[in-house]
Amino acid sequence: MSTSSNNNLARVLELLSDQATAGLAEQEHQELSRLMAELPLDQQQIAKLERDRLDRAVGVALGMMMQKDRAQALPASLRDKLLASGMAALGNNRAPAAVPAHAARPGQSRFAIYAGWLVAAASIALAAVVYFNRPKPIPTPTVFAQAAELARDPSTIKAAWVSGPHAVDKNVTGQVEWNTGLQKGFLRLKGITANDPTKMQYQLWIFDKGRIEPAHNNDLLAQNPIDGGVFDVSNAQLDPATGDYIIPIDPKLAVRNPGAFAVTTEVPGGVVVTKRESIILLAPVGG
């Protein structure tokens, strides 16, 4: 086998790799056709086998990456890592478009470099399949879903709102839903006036029967209640199914045995100890 035919075969393989990965210009197409025709039959067979192998590799890679249910792109960081790993294994970190024929190492054709990029591309495609079929994280339930689930729990306390001593809105409806075992609960409010957070915030209080001091003579509302958190109507979640504003309860102490819940109007940021004259809503437990 002549040196000339060997050189022609090497050039054909380079052109075939170019054709599979980046496409050929018209002049290169003509060169490929001419060289293929000039090759001996055994080398033509080798070239055809390599062409088919390259076409299959590219087809598999593209097919895996272009599945129509792959709406997202593989994260750039993961893609870069795979490319770097694939090319490091081949001892070359250049991009295909930047690798001229003379850039190949002694004994290494440009075809070998492109073949390495096909390996890297197939690795990316496989990683994409794994990535997009990985178990999806369980989404955090919405406030509405959490409130609905809590309301279905038979151990959840439900206490309806009534107007407090200093009510501003006389037609506020809704209830408190609180679960002592879970130390979790929500306020449901409908008809409450939106507040200006720069001037006033609403604050929830929990009067706990388990914390009544003897000095209060068992007067539940005379004790210092537990701070249940401040809230603004503008930040509350509006339940589209009921029209209720839903606000999570944020108790600053463990609630042992709630006897009543109250909402007051306070300065922005809330207060540590509320004044009873600012109670606008009250929800007695069990009555």
Q: If you had to describe this structure to a student in words, what would you say it looks like?
A:
With 287 residues, the chain is α+β, with helices and mostly antiparallel strands. The protein has 2 domains: 3-132, no CATH class; 143-284, Immunoglobulin-like, CATH 2.60.40. Helices cover 37% and strands 19% of the residues. Helix 1 (3-21) runs parallel beside helix 5 and helix 3 packs parallel to helix 5. Mean pLDDT is 77; it is low at 68-72 and 92-108.
Tags for this entry?
alpha+beta, 2 domains, five-stranded antiparallel beta sheet, 37% helix, 287 residues, rod-shaped, single chain, Immunoglobulin-like, 10 strands
Count of DSSP H/I helices: 6
- CATH class categorisation of the largest domain: Mainly Beta
End-to-end C-alpha gap: 103 Å
Tertiary shape: rod-shaped
Q: What sequence of helices (H) and strands (E) makes up the elements?
A: HHHHHHEEEEEEEEEE
Might you state the CATH topology name of the largest domain? Immunoglobulin-like
Number of strands: 10
Number of domains in the coordinates?
2
Q: What gyration radius follows from the Cα positions, in whole Å?
A: 36 Å
Give a summary of the structure in a few sentences.
By secondary structure, the chain is α+β, with helices and mostly antiparallel strands.
What secondary-structure arrangement, pairings included, does this model have?
Layout: H1 3-21, H2 26-38, H3 41-65, H4 76-90, H5 110-132, H6 143-152, E1 157-160, E2 162-163, E3 173-179, E4 184-190, E5 201-208, E6 226-231, E7 237-238, E8 245-248, E9 258-266, E10 279-284
Antiparallel strand pairs: 1-3, 2-10, 3-4, 4-8, 5-6, 5-9, 7-8, 9-10
Helix pairs in contact: 1-2, 1-3, 1-5, 3-5, 4-5
